[in-house]
Batch of 4 targets.
Target 1
Amino acid sequence: MEFYRFKDAITKDCGLSFSVADTPPPPNQTNGHQSTTMAGRGSVRASGNFNANQDAEILYKAMKGLGTDEDSIMKLLTSRSNSQRQQIKAAYKTLHGKDLVGDLQGELGGKFETLVVALMTPPILYDVTSLRNAIKGAGTDEKVLIEILSSRTAQQIKDITAAYRQEFNKNLEEDVTGDTSGHFRRLLVILLQASRQQGVQEGNIEADAQTLFSAGEKKFGTDEEQFITILGNRSTEHLKRVFAAYMKLAGYEMEESIQRETSGGLRDLLLAVVKCARSVPAYFAETLYYSMKGAGTDDQTLIRVMVSRSEVDMLDIRADYRRLFAKSLHSAIQGDTSGDYRKALLLLCGGNDA
């Protein structure tokens, strides 16, 4: 089954070869938090002059005979939306009686292959597969659980839960609880409910800030329960107001207190929730920065974020990356990767903000 081939490619170690889409036109401003629809904020857009059969033929020719034309594959796939890629996949099967993803995997290798297979996977299935791989086997990849469950919208979380059951005949919440423990597990379960309160409760802003202060900085030890309840259940709009009130009350940013008062997986998850409440694109800019910082590259994270945000908010991520780290995302990718893998990632990035 195609899904398993995707799963194998995601877990393989690799090396890439690609060519990218044009830089998109300047978009409208959005505030970038979870509940915002990011229409037009992606670096990858649907092609206006789209013909699935024609594209299927281009890909077939790129893989036919001796050698593979990686550049053509890369340029085409990064200049089509995911929905269009699914139509190309269907056309390819109709025209050639073969599975496009299987053929791509047979022709490509390394990180480039992983990236191309990720691009060919519908977004919800990509999230579901990433979560499944993070949970199954020995050990848990907490980073993936944290990233996906803290950054996706309520509707996306509901779709992920349903797709997980359909794909694996398993319950995502049960799998998560079976693989995690303690306060970390409790907050993950709350996030999986996808039932944050709506709007801002004016009367609770000061009370929430006070509760968080009393649960952490003000006492010996930490009442993690209060952090989990408030940060896991309030709306992002409400939390922004609470963070401002907390700063006035405690003299610290919420993130500073979480760093001091908690540890391990819970700390990382609470920080991700707070950062996503403030700005999802800024959270991903930071995630990308740390995937390339220091010796070695966390290619799994780099690929996952570049693919999953390419049609959502990559333009905002690029702007936040420039603002936060005084360099462009484009130059960071250029300096940290190589070959076709680098070319493909730069196409997904879509432009240099140097």
Note: The chain has a mean pLDDT of 90.
Target 2
Amino acid sequence: MNLRQLLLHLPRYLGASGSPRRLWWSPCLDTISSVGSWRGQSSKSPAHWNQVVSEAEKIVGYPTSFMSLRCLLSDELSNIAMQVRKLVGTQHPLLTTARGLVHDSRNSLQLRGLVVLLISKAAGPSSVNTSCQNYDMVSGIYSCQRSLAEITELIHTALLVHRGIVNLNELQSSDGPLKDMQFGNKIAILSGDFLLANACNGLALLQNTKVVELLASALMDLVQGVYHENSTSKESYITDDIGISTWKEQTFLSHGALLAKSCQAAMELAKHDAEVQDMAFQYGKHMAMSHKINSDVQPFIKEKTSDSMTFNLNSAPVVLHQEFLGRDLWIKQIGEAQEKGRLDYAKLRERIKAGKGVTSAIDLCRYHGNKALEALESFPPSEARSALENIVFAVTRFS
């Protein structure tokens, strides 16, 4: 399937008639054998995520939050935004996605583009192949690499929008009128497709076949990961026998492949050799995995957590908790946490916190952080490399 065909079929793969379901896992005997020793946080690394991102953006020349401004200010998307306003007052998840695109500072939805720019600057021009010397360069980054960073963000944003499609077959009376959800789904599909079309157009303008192949395969990985989520029912956590190894494979597809392959593509645009490309890929992969696990751990370590707050039963702490606990005890805990046919997340959260799943997830996060730092050792010391290290320190910081 080529990129154009993938774009046309994407809404169906992502569940045009339904929202992505959570993955529900059951334990197996596989566990983490060793996560290695954590290198510790650099004494010079910023203490807060916002500061890390702000300092990194200064290094690459301009805030990455404005990378997609040309697309976002286009007449087509302005018309879509006007339609999205009609959803105000409804409970369609597209509104939550829209707010997140503007206000999310903790997870930084522009993180992927920022990392692509930083690793481009950290690597610099190729010392072997000088065919790029005539390319435009601003703040040590080629214009084509900046375009790639924007394309990466467009793809990521499009997938976030498509993930907000509601499963109309599982609607409850508390979700609001059916017509609101139907209208919201149409807008989610339309706006997500528009962003993906712009990304495809940008890829074509790069005129690099290998980069197109890398980003197309990343998009295929994303679709495969989300399709797996869509095809998994809530009951499968009891019947399936899936452990942390499979969880890591699926998480790479849905959360790590885009950043990893975008980092590799940035090296390809600068004509770096295969070894440098692989190190960039490894950094993107392990940093993305660490970032995802950090997000998974948050509901279990926040001091102020609402009792009604749900968490993903496919998150790393839960999967690890199941493995340590064993299949039978996990099913028993699920049964004990049921209240009138509904899962009491507060009760289940306390059971998970009392086990080894949360601490093991933190160890796994730091393991991937160490792997990302190891990949950076092949790049020469620079401000950009330090910024990439600080991002790792920030996503592996839990105190």
Note: The two ends are 46 Å apart (CA to CA).
Target 3
Amino acid sequence: MRDTMLTGSEGIKKTILHGGTGDLPKFITGTKVTFHFRTQLCDDERTVLDDSKKVGTPMEIVIGNMFKLDIWETLLSSMRIDEVSEFWCDTIHTGVYPLVSKSMRRIAEGKDPVEWQVHTCGMANMFAYHSLGYDDLDELMKEPKPLYFVLELLRVQQPSEYNRESWALSNEERLKAVPVLHGQGNKLYKQGRYQEATQKYKEAIVCIKNVQTKEKAWDVPWLKLEKMANTLTLNYCQCLLRMEEYYEVIEHTTDIVNQHPGRCGCR
């Protein structure tokens, strides 16, 4: 074990638990990084908050893609393939961890991590943040603490070495993907392939909602994106009607009617 202070990064201490192999990989914008992580409190018990190995699925992030916990990019960029290192991070780096953890836990539970963005309107969003749905994360949100991150670097892929899914796109790329996904959904709908069409519409909606979070609510850019999302949601609902999923249709269309009275139909 070897302790070092991470150069140029205040409030981080690195301990190498297992040395990696080869040279330090290139970490450029668009690089996809696959790794295991374990997050622990700095208490006597070293309480484990999250452990990707227990879930059975490694974490993936794309460098420069505005991942909420951007300190992980800094930590990973100091590692070699197969290296296992422990990082002590002060509270200046861990404040948003509860939000990131919530998303990861929802994925592990088989839930959509951005489902609230699709189904919940502006005022309700404010109350959705009152509780994260997990007691330990609520406590950490109220009182941020230093954390230990134990990271194991598994794979580093350059942008040309993998197919980029919608979550890995930049905001500009997401907006370009929306009409393509919309068109693919329409084609599948006309072919009667309603389940496949819903996936295309849903992916397009998620792209829009991810971009929309960067805009101020109810400003012109936000409203333009909202209109696009509503159109896709209505198309999504048309597929659900064909599949006789009536309750979900009622949920989605009620949200739209409450926010935008008089709007109807789909394209």
Note: The mean pLDDT is 84.
Target 4
Amino acid sequence: MGLSQDNLKGVVLALLSSGFIGASFIIKKKGLRRAAAVSGVRAGCGGYAYLLEPLWWLGMITMIVGEVANFVAYAFAPAILVTPLGALSIIVSAVLAQFMLKEKLQPLGVLGCVMCISGSVVIVIHAPQESPITSVQEIWTMATQPAFLLYLGSVIVLVFLLIFHFVPRCGHTNVLVFTGICSLMGSLSVMSVKALGTALKLTFEGKNQLLYPETWFFLFIVATCVITQMNYLNKALDTFNTAVVSPIYYVMFTSLTILASVIMFKDWDGQSMGSIISELCGFIAVLSGTILLNSTKDSDRGSSFRGGHAPLSPTLSTGLFSGNGETPKQDEENVLLSEEICLRKQELH
């Protein structure tokens, strides 16, 4: 199946987004190391010297460019195509880390990269063609159809149940509680981002959508969902190992986003069963590759500790949050934790 012009633009933007975001983690990490070397105080210990480090700001700017490209990609292509491609940022980080940070990529990690790339190619080849949208009111009609309202109601009920019932009881012992809230809210934020992005695209084409209250309502939903998502993502990262949170969050978030997109935008309408099965297989390959890449990095870290040496650098699994709410502060703390252990070991000797 050939790609439409809009789908092609969306794929290119999604790939650029993954490239920029993946590279931003490496640039920020080098900036954090340089700032720590100059000031002697690491970000994980409360230091803020990195704010004066140009390399760290270059990393932040690179990440912002990537996030903007990701936002615009949703205006051109369906979420079922754009969202899984976010996993490619992990590959960019892993490859750059091997050359720039001397982090060794194990054979199973290479296999994970190959699976992510292969799955992404399959998804792109069999991606559905979106019906042209002429106004934000059209999207509002899709958002208020009974099937999506049922999904929306289910998400709201589940989020309230998780926040008010499960968080006080097992939020700090069960990783699925915080990641579940993030993933459910994340699926709604992506739908709203797509609606808002499409409205802005139409506005720039000369069809002003800012006159409609629906556009501003979608903006409000984006802000609400992202703030909630970021809040509970931070709690998950603060409570549990990043290598545990990352794959679970990515799998849940991506799965729920695709489900929401299929319901709201009817992505699979008109597609053959073969194309749908191919997309699902590609999606499973991407998820499997992501988990495999993550697990090999975590096992490397564990073997380093067992050998009596702290790892020179932590995993780059935080790259999983490329399009979904990765926080700079949490990244800084995770990035420098192992280096702090290294220093302490050196002081003991």
Note: The chain has two domains: 1-129, 131-266.
